[in-house]
Amino acid sequence: MRESDIPLTAVSTPSRMLREWLVMPHGLSNTPATFNRLVTQLFRPLRTFAQTYFDDIFVHSRAEGGQTAMELVIYSNHITSGPITSKSDLSWVFRCPIILIHFTTPTPRSQKDLRKWLGLANYLHKYSAGYAELARPLSDLLKKDADWVWEQQH
C-alpha cells in the first residue's frame, strides 16, 4: 500500500478511535489485480519455466528432475527471506524432495463447469502440443445450440 493511501483506509471504531490499514485490505475492488501483478513481476525472471496464475505457480521442464524446480525454490527463498549469500544458504535445497503433482478434476456436469476448466487449460495451452485439436470436442460442447452430451471422446 502506498504511504499516501493509508489515510484513505481509516475506519472509525465504536470507541472513537481511527484505525488505518498499513497493508491493502481484502475487499477492495483492485486487490486481486494488484496481487496478481505483484506475483507476475516477482516471477518474471523465471517465466521460461514457471507460469503464475494468482497464487498458483506452474513449473514445467522437458527434462525429468530438471534444475527448474530447484531454481524456483531458490528464487522463492530469495523473495521471502532475502538474498542467498553463501553456499551454506543453498544446502537445504538439496535435501528438499522434488514432488510431481498431477491432479484430476471432476467431470464437468454443465457448460459452466466446462467453461471454468477450459479457462485454466487455455491459460496453459502453450505447454500442450496440438492443444487446439485436443480441445475442439470440448469447445464444440460450448456452442450455443449444442446439446450437452458427455461422451468417451470428451
TrEMBL record:
Highest taxon, organism lineage: Eukaryota
Chain ranges of the Reverse transcriptase domain: 3-64
InterPro entries (UniProt xref): DNA/RNA_pol_sf, Rev_trsase/Diguanyl_cyclase, RT_dom, Viral_Replic_Matur_Polypro
Xref: PANTHER family: POL PROTEIN (PTHR33064), RIBONUCLEASE H (PTHR33064:SF37)
Name of the protein in question: Pol protein
